[in-house]
Amino acid sequence: MLRNLVVLLLGMQLESLGAIPQLSRAAPIGDETYTTIQADRGKIVYDQNCSTCHGPSLRGGANEFAAPALAGPFFFETWNGRPLEELFRYSAENMPPGQARLPETAYLDVTAYILQVLKYPAGDTELTADSPMMKRGIERQ
Question: Alpha-carbon torsion 128, 35, 97, 137, what sign?
């Protein structure tokens, strides 16, 4: 038991010194997860369907709906380390509340827009529902 504790403490110390990579619930999202054009489409969808509740800056609603933030520190309190797919699926299954669901491509585009706001670099490949990036964890950039 003492040996396990020593190994755990040593591992934590090495991690804090940067000698080994930090452990997270999922691998971090890499480069080139979406295209700029896709994020631009996502901004249009967001402005038309999401900003009323989540705010124009994605920082959360300051209205009677008090929708959660989709960017900034309050967003990361909930989503840091969680797979991007969870955010995408939650949006696709629940948003906008009380209204008809949008096409899947609209949710993918909004997810790309969120990644752009979070400072993830754009690439040459559009984000898809089966993209490997969906399995990776959301992290601050």
Answer: positive
